[in-house]
Amino acid sequence: MKVLIQTTLGDILVRLYDETPLHRDNFARLAAEGYYDGTLFHRVIKNFMIQGGDPESRNAPEGKQLGTGGPDYTIEAEIKPGLFHKRGALAAARTGDQVNPERRSSGSQFYIVWGQVYNDAQMKQTERQMQMQQMQDVFNNLAAQHKAEIMQMRRDRDRAGLQALQERLAAEAEQTVKAAPCSLSDEQRTAYTTVGGTPHLDGQYTVFGEVVEGLDIVEMIQSCATAHGDRPIDDIEMRMKVVDE
After folding, report:
1. Can you give the pLDDT at residue 132?
2. Residue 54, Cβ neighbours under 10 Å: how many?
3. pLDDT tens digits, 29-68
4. Which of 222, 196, 215 lies closest to 44 in space, CA to CA?
5. Nearest-10 Cα torsion for 2, 186, 120, 50
6. If both were cysteines, with which of 12, 20, 46, 196 could 214 make a disulfide (CB 3.0 to 4.6 Å apart)?
7. Model confidence band, residue 182 (pLDDT cutoffs 50, 70, 90)
8. For the packed helices 186-194 and 120-145, what is the interaxial angle rounded to 10 degrees?
9. Contacts for 118 with CB less than 8 Å, ≥ 6 apart
10. With b meaning 16 or more CB within 10 Å and e meaning fewer, what string describes 194-210?
């Protein structure tokens, strides 16, 4: 299935992945219903990504804070190892882990990756950062399993008990990561060292499609001048339609 994103700077054609059916069907439905028509690419960061899909950006006056709008639902995460943040990837925005530990996606907001091209040393550093994030995720999951115990220790002001538990969970998280460390596939390494992208987002957000035509338009948009909140100084509107099912 393909969706045509018509912008004031040119057209972008994206292909939606069948491997992420919840996101595919939701994006196509909203596009067909005209949900995105008249909305803006409201957040643009050079050498990173372009973001849109906030219904509150439609006819938004200059200076309005954007990025929190959307339908009254979120979408279950469909984070798949083989779908990653190469240049041109289409992915779903979401709120942070602190309030969204399940990493559920926004019902409408999305971003298209630009990123950068990495050398081998940068890839090794990125992989180390991904493993640190993996360890933090494992630790958080373990802590969640001991939530009642932790809360009781806090009520009892049992600092020694809390410290001992934290050290035990940290050691367990470290052993878990050592047994199965997060690593980049050969496909990811090739893409990030030739085409480019944002590897540090892998495993954190749902990638559900990719640009098949109009990557030059994405480049134009991510290079545009922006104001406060990373909003382009000159509004970049969009319209969408499903062109292939």
Report:
1. 87
2. 23
3. 999 999 999 999 999 999 999 999 999 999 999 989 999 9
4. 222
5. 20
6. 12
7. confident
8. 130
9. 126, 192, 193, 196, 199
10. eebbbbebbbbbbbbbb
Instruction: Please answer whether residues 92 and 109 qualify as being in contact, where contact means their C-beta atoms are separated by less than 8 angstroms.
Output: yes
- Residue 23's closest CA among 45, 53, 44, 49? 53
pLDDT recorded at residue 245: 58
Query: What ranges make up the beta strands (E) of 183-236?
Result: 207-213
Scored b (16 or more CB within 10 A) or e, 146-183 reads eeeebeebeeeeeeeeeeebeeebeeebeebbeeeebe
| CA distances, 116 to each of 42, 87, 169, 198 (Å) | 21, 8, 36, 7
Model pTM? 0.85
Asked if 144 and 131 touch (Cβ cutoff 8 Å), the reply is no
> Can you read off the two tokens belonging to residue 27?
């994006």
**Using alpha carbons only, what angle is made at residue 241 by residues 237 and 242, rounded to the nearest 5 degrees?**
145
**What does the pLDDT read at residue 180?**
75
Can you tell me which residue has the tokens 């559920």?
104
Q: Give the C-alpha separation, 99 to 90, whole Å.
A: 23
The residue whose two tokens read 């050398």 is: 119
Residue of 31, 20, 188, 24 lying closest to 115 (CA atoms): 188
Q: Which amino acid is at 244?
A: D
Share of the chain above pLDDT 90, in %: 79
- E strand or H helix at 4, and its extent? strand 2-7
